[in-house]
Predict the 3D structure of the following.
Amino acid sequence: MLSWEELEQSCQSCSRCELCKTRTNVVFGVGNRTADILFVGEGPGEQEDLKGEPFVGPAGKLLDDMLSIIDLDRSICYIGNIVKCRPPRNRDPQEEEQEACIGYLQKQIQLIQPKIIVCLGRIAALKLIRPDYRITREHGQWMEKDGIWMTATYHPSALLRDVNKRPEAFEDLLSIREMMRKLKCNM
Ligand code: URA
């Protein structure tokens, strides 16, 4: 198995898809590399691309607020993305881009060995939970996959666009907190 350093190095120099041509920085991931809980977004936006860190723009500010609701912060969890380079104009990452990149996240998961993975939004849930996942209908539900408890909630950007979704996201957060307690996660 690759070490963190080897994995990050190969990711930093990756040219497996076209996104490498327009990126400023690879956004590898951030947080605690022994975390019990991993949050996965879809891909970097403009601020993330400029800084090389996930969720540092407006959606990131809301993610930090969401984490603090359940007494978490970036030092306790790990935060990554399905694709590590920004899709131009923040479009959804294409299937080929996701396929080219997913190996990095899979190796991060092997290294972290989280007890819980929370998909932030539809794209992450489609890739990590089920290819026909319905975020509106299924967010907040849990399933166990390869010994890891998986759930999804709305992407913070969706919660910025539509505040009516926030009460449901709040319920999802409480459910995540409860699952962390049940699984005796570090928190
Ligand atoms: N949106 C994402 O999905 N990921 C980020 O890192 C930032 C915004």
